[in-house]
């Protein structure tokens, strides 16, 4: 008796311009799917202590699949007989040549990793069954050996018994995880660059602003994937990012305040000098804090976790359908819209909270169109509009608070005068915004 397992290679990349078909490789999701599903698919396998041989098409995607198969078999304690062999007949999809080689082989258990239509054709030829092979599918056949011309000569019967068939994993479900990881990794890498840029030129206001914005973006993405990421890991990353971005909060307020002062042509040189000094002093403090051993360690830990997400066991095993991600996104956006509809700008805490959630919706909308769909771009624009409107109100409140704190100091008269005018200006804006909001009810 001889056992044959026919396998179609995993999900492969489309051909790149000028690339030969034989050189195509597996997609990341294709590798991910096989790594997770092959060990479970092979539970159907009964080797009964027999060593197996692995034959593969010479195509790169087939060889990669065969290597993953070999690893999964070894993890099950299956003995691999000799070295993996490349068979041209599997690339040529020559069923007759393959069967001739199989008849001549003394191997009792053979895995053959190839392509379609070969995989389907050889199963049909031997069993009259016609299973449709998706990428990564396996079919196990039992072939009977019979005496040929003498008792010492054996031949393989023309027909075989189909023992089992396992359809391949849907690589697209793992592709969602791959795409989410790529988006988060890219954001983490940008943050690392922003941090380095801030350290290199801390006087440039934009460097700390960009660093803060990207930290908040990453925090939004980590919050978004919470249902699918390891629970403890997600909580740890969010806590680390919250701690890091918290050190930049006052800096952000001072930069906004200074920008408003500079936008007013009537601001005195003394006020502008005061604003610049306050912002610079805080920036130096932020630089010192971010460069400390404790915060550096927290930052490196957060980046490490972000670049290597541990998905919950269920999603590692079965993947994550794209429509599940879109459903979470839609629910998040609808929740923000519902809160916007009943928001009262007079409630400072609620306004601040809804603004943060609109910002989070915008960041998530922007991060991966391939997963969320093209309409996410327009949704992002809508969230940005809400964010900006609420941001003006929140900034006015922050400016009023800052000015009130500044006026408690012993300051030069021109600065006191200008600060008083700025506070009145922000109070007037806030009053108008609140009255307009009341008028909508």
Total number of strands: 6
The percent of residues in helical segments reads 55-70%
Number of domains: 3
Which architecture of the largest domain does the CATH hierarchy give at level 2?
Answer: 3-Layer(aba) Sandwich
Hey, roughly how much beta strand do the residues contain? 5-15%
Question: What strand line-up does the widest sheet have?
Answer: 3-2-4-1-5-6
Largest sheet: 6 strands, mixed
Ends distance: 82 Å
Oligomer: single chain
* Mean model confidence by pLDDT: 91
What is the succession of H and E elements?
EHEHEHHEHEEHHHHHHHHHHHH
* Class per helix and strand makeup: alpha/beta
Contiguous low-pLDDT stretches (5 residues minimum) are 150-154
**Form type:** elongated
SS field, number of helical segments? 17
The CATH class label of the largest domain is Alpha Beta
CATH topology of the largest domain: Rossmann fold
* Radius of gyration, whole Å: 32 Å
């Amino acid at each position: 008796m001889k056992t044959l397992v026919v396998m179609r290679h995993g999900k492969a990349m489309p051909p790149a311009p000028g690339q030969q078909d034989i050189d195509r490789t597996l997609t990341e999701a294709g590798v991910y799917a096989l790594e997770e599903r092959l060990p479970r698919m092979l539970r159907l396998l009964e080797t009964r202590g027999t060593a197996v041989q692995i034959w593969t098409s010479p195509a790169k995607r087939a060889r990669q699949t065969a290597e993953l198969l070999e690893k999964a078999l070894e993890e099950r304690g299956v003995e691999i007989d000799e070295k993996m062999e490349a068979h041209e007949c599997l690339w040529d999809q020559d069923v007759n040549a393959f069967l001739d080689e199989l008849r001549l082989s003394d191997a009792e258990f053979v895995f053959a990793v190839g392509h379609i239509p070969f995989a389907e054709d050889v199963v049909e030829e031997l069993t009259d069954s016609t299973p449709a092979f998706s990428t990564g599918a396996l079919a196990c056949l039992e072939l009977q050996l019979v005496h040929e011309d003498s008792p010492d000569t054996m031949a393989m019967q023309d027909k075989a018994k189909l023992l089992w068939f396992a359809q391949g994993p849907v690589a697209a479900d793992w592709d969602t995880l791959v795409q989410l990881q790529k988006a988060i990794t890219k954001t983490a890498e940008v943050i690392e660059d922003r941090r380095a840029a801030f350290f290199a030129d801390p006087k440039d206001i934009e460097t700390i602003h960009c660093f803060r914005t990207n930290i908040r973006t990453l925090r939004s993405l980590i919050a978004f994937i919470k249902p699918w990421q390891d629970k403890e890991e997600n909580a740890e990353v969010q806590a680390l990012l919250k701690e890091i971005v918290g050190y930049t909060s006052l800096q952000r307020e001072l930069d906004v305040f200074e920008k408003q002062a500079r936008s007013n042509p009537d601001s005195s040189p003394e006020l502008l000098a005061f604003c610049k000094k306050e912002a610079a002093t805080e920036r130096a403090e932020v630089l010192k804090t971010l460069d400390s051993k404790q915060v550096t360690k927290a930052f490196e830990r957060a980046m490490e976790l972000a670049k290597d997400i541990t998905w919950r066991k269920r999603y590692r095993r079965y993947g994550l359908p794209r429509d599940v991600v879109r459903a979470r996104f839609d629910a998040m956006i609808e929740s923000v819209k519902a809160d916007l509809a009943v928001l009262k700008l007079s409630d400072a805490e609620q306004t601040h909270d809804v603004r943060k959630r609109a910002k989070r919706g915008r960041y998530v909308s922007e991060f991966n169109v391939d997963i969320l769909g093209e309409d996410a771009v327009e949704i992002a624009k809508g969230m940005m509009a809400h964010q900006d409107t609420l941001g003006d109100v929140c900034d006015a409140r922050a400016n009023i608070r800052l000015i009130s704190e500044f006026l408690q100091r012993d300051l030069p008269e021109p600065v006191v005068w200008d600060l008083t005018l700025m506070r009145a200006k922000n109070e007037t804006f806030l009053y108008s915004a609140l009255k307009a909001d009341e008028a909508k009810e």
